[in-house]
Write a structure and sequence with these properties.
Elements: E1 3-6, E2 9-12, H1 17-30, H2 41-47, H3 52-72, H4 78-88, H5 91-94, H6 98-111, H7 117-135
Antiparallel strand pairs: 1-2
Helix pairs in contact: 3-4, 6-7
Length: about 140
Amino acid sequence: MAHSLKNNDYQPYQPDPRILAESVLDITEYLGNTAASPLSVNIFCLEHDLNFDDFTQIWRCLSKIVTDQDNIGLKITFPLIKKRLKQAAGPQVKEFNDQAMVGLIKVFAKNLIPDLYVLSLSIEDDYQASEQNRSH
């Protein structure tokens, strides 16, 4: 790492956190990260300005949906997950469009909630089909 000398004081270089964040996002984009198919939960949160509290609320909400499905036979659908997330999560999530919401569900399912993973694939298929219908 580079170092600076000021008045003969040795001070380690302190990189700007914004530059580090943008560098990480550049690398993940090169590796194939997209809005519809995020590579990791942390990258998704970084891209969407979600903090650790948002992350925790999302994880709890999605986990509860899976638990409710197991305990009371709740039928999980994209509109249900979207509604619950918008009720439980912070203001950024409330503003997500459907593509960002699908990406959120998919990345949390893939990385943290395996019981939601198969459903996340069908949600993605449903979302893509509805997008194709809108464009025709």
